[in-house]
Amino acid sequence: MQTFLDEWTLSKGREVRVKTRLYKEARPARLIRIRAAGFPLRDAHNYSISTIDEKLFGVYAKDQWIGTTVAAGDYLFDQRIIPDFAFEIIKVLPPGKVTITEDTVVRLERQIEQPKPPIYTFTDIVGHEEVKKKCKVVTGYLKNPERFGEWAPKNILFHGPPGTGKTMTARALASETKSSLHLVRATDLIGEYVGDGAKRIHDLFRVASSSAPSVIFLDELDAIGLDRSYQAVRGDVAEIVNALLTELEGLHENTGVVTIAATNNPAMLDQALRSRFEEEMEFTLPNEKERLKILKNYGKRLPMGVSTNFKDYVKKTEGFSGRDLKDKLLKAALHKAILEDAKEITKEHLELAFKAIPPRPSPPKEMFS
């Protein structure tokens, strides 16, 4: 009968939770193969986890588990981005008891094949010419950080209505510079216990720095970065904001790392936080010409043809974002065509989809005063 130990061990100066057998001796591990096992207590479901970049995952895994002694059948618990998520060790080389070192290769077993996120370039982004122009400086930095030194474009704030291309631009920036992309919602940084949130912030930047050049895209910044006057809405997130301020101030070098935060409400942000972004880029709703181009671009990617002219919907969709055009109009029309076993999307399908879209709210009158 095996004896197990569930404990907090010290790894590179940090505490790491690990469930292992009690061993006296171990050899350095050449390979550790793991698979997602899920949360031990929260529910009965196991989770399918996959990674796009195996090398990046290896850095992430080793950095928190280095120095841990394990064998096949043991469990490792993530304490960073997905706290308490368990990974089962299914293979180690050499066989037997091994210790994870800097030279260990950590691989995540492929499970259900996950759809890969689309790869975008700046040519896929319709409009936002001023944003794309400013991004050329960021592109230059990510390709050659040494050239910029202390003048690096480190912290950038994207702001504008939802669905106007902020995330797409971050993906394009990472793709064109071959940078690692770390997409994080601000709400995911809120921990369950005191200190969790700050730790997640620092770990995020540590992993990004290890895989530089990197782009950190922090979405929904207002979820944690509201001005202190909105304390009733904001909640107790001072610890997270302070940790983020520390990283944005550049107390750690983080060479080759660019932080992009996105918000729909820049005026509501805490001024101490907003002031840390040296560049702000505004994303606006598309005009008629841009809406037509967006419809045509997405129309080419539909799994069936469209037997109508998109020009008929340019004026009708005033106030729509690119995401609205894709999800509320084109996707809805596609689904109606599929339900009818149609061979193409007709004007009738688009009309039905358009009529089902809720009315657009009118802008407040004070905006025009």
State the shape.
globular
C-alpha termini separation: 78 Å
Main structural class: alpha/beta
> What number of structural domains do the residues give?
3
Mean pLDDT: 81
CATH superfamily of the largest domain: P-loop containing nucleotide triphosphate hydrolases
Q: Would you identify the regions where 5 or more consecutive residues have pLDDT less than 50?
A: 1-23, 42-47, 363-369
Number of beta-strand segments: 16
Helix content: 25-40%
Query: Could you give the order of the helices and strands?
Result: EEEEHEEEEEHEHEHEHHHEHEHEHEH
Radius of gyration: 24 Å
Strand content: 15-25%
Report on this structure:
Helix 4 (196-210) runs parallel beside helix 7. The chain has three domains: 4-108, Vcp-like ATPase, Chain A, domain 2; 122-282, 3-Layer(aba) Sandwich (Rossmann fold), CATH 3.40.50; 288-355, Helicase, Ruva Protein, domain 3 (Orthogonal Bundle), CATH 1.10.8.60. 32% of the residues lie in helices and 21% in strands. It has a six-stranded mixed beta sheet, with helices on one face. It contains eleven helices and 16 strands. With 369 residues, it is α/β, with parallel strands linked by helices.
List the helices and strands and how they pair.
Elements: E1 4-11, E2 14-21, E3 27-28, E4 31-38, H1 54-65, E5 69-70, E6 75-78, E7 85-93, E8 98-99, E9 105-108, H2 129-143, E10 155-159, H3 166-176, E11 180-185, H4 196-210, E12 214-219, H5 222-225, H6 231-234, H7 238-248, E13 257-263, H8 271-274, E14 279-282, H9 288-301, E15 305-306, H10 322-339, E16 344-345, H11 347-355
Parallel strand pairs: 3-8, 4-9, 10-13, 10-14, 11-12, 12-13, 15-16
Antiparallel strand pairs: 1-2, 2-6, 4-7, 5-8, 6-7
Helix pairs in contact: 4-7, 9-10, 10-11
